[in-house]
Design brief:
Low-confidence stretches: none
Largest sheet: 8 strands, parallel
Strand order of the largest sheet: 7-6-5-4-3-2-1-8
Structural class: alpha/beta
CATH superfamily: Alanine racemase
Mean pLDDT: 95
Number of domains: 1
Shape: globular
Strand content: 15-25%
CATH topology: TIM Barrel
Helix content: 40-55%
Number of strands: 8
């Protein structure tokens, strides 16, 4: 408990320092704790230390945790690849979906979202470096998909999510992050609901914040290496 609490506060301090260095208003960047493969008990410990947002990649694993943690006020984000046969449960149980990259999935989430729980918050996932092994829409197609999503009544378009190439080249890294931020600004100018650029993980969160991220997805730095 103490170690997790210390790790959480260290990450928050790192985010605050990065905000200050970037000249960003304090507390502008949200922390999403990536809790895939972590137990419900560990998530509870982190939540009781003040963390509210958690990201899950695997639907069935997440549903078990949600049941165990139903007494807590947790904001659940789905951040894994989406199969068509999983959209019903994702739409019914998550607050956010960050990995929408095609209209078919958006339509299914919209049609299967229960009317009594409010709109489902959506981020479009961009394959910013056009990697064949990664999910995500091409940057050139973002605005077309955004327009289509904006017409779906049970969805709320909130922004973009990217996973840039894992590289040691700071120039390439900065370029990818900067390109994503430019797209985000253009999108936000078109849609008032757009306020989230989900960008940056344990290894690059400081650089991502400097380049305009509003939400960092942190797993390893918080929970340690996955077993």
């Amino acid at each position: 408990m103490t170690e997790l609490n210390n790790q959480l506060h260290h990450i928050i301090e790192t985010i605050n320092l990065a905000e200050n260095q970037a000249g960003i208003k304090p507390n502008s960047v949200q922390l999403l704790a990536v809790s895939k493969t972590q137990s419900a008990e560990i998530i509870r410990q982190v939540a009781e230390s003040g963390q509210r947002r958690f990201g899950e990649n695997y639907l069935q694993e997440a549903l078990v945790k949600m049941s165990s943690l139903a007494d807590l006020s947790i904001e659940w984000h789905f951040i894994g690849p989406i199969q068509s046969n999983k959209t019903k449960d994702i739409a019914a149980n998550f607050d956010w979906v960050q990995t929408v990259d095609r209209l078919k999935i958006a339509q299914r989430l919209n049609n299967q979202r229960p009317n009594n729980i409010g709109k489902l918050n959506i981020c479009i996932q961009i394959n910013i470096d056009n990697e064949v092994t990664k999910s995500g829409i091409a940057a050139a197609d973002v605005f077309s998909l955004a327009e289509q999503i904006s017409q779906l009544n049970n969805l709320q378009l909130r922004g973009l999510m990217i996973i840039p190439t894992n590289t040691d080249d700071p120039v390439q890294q900065q370029h990818s992050l900067n390109q994503a931020h430019k797209l985000f600004i253009e999108l936000a100018n078109l849609y008032p609901s757009v306020d989230t650029l989900s960008m940056g993980m344990s290894a690059d969160m400081t650089t991502a914040i400097a380049e305009g991220s509003t939400m960092v997805r942190i797993g390893t730095a918080l929970f340690g290496e996955r077993r």
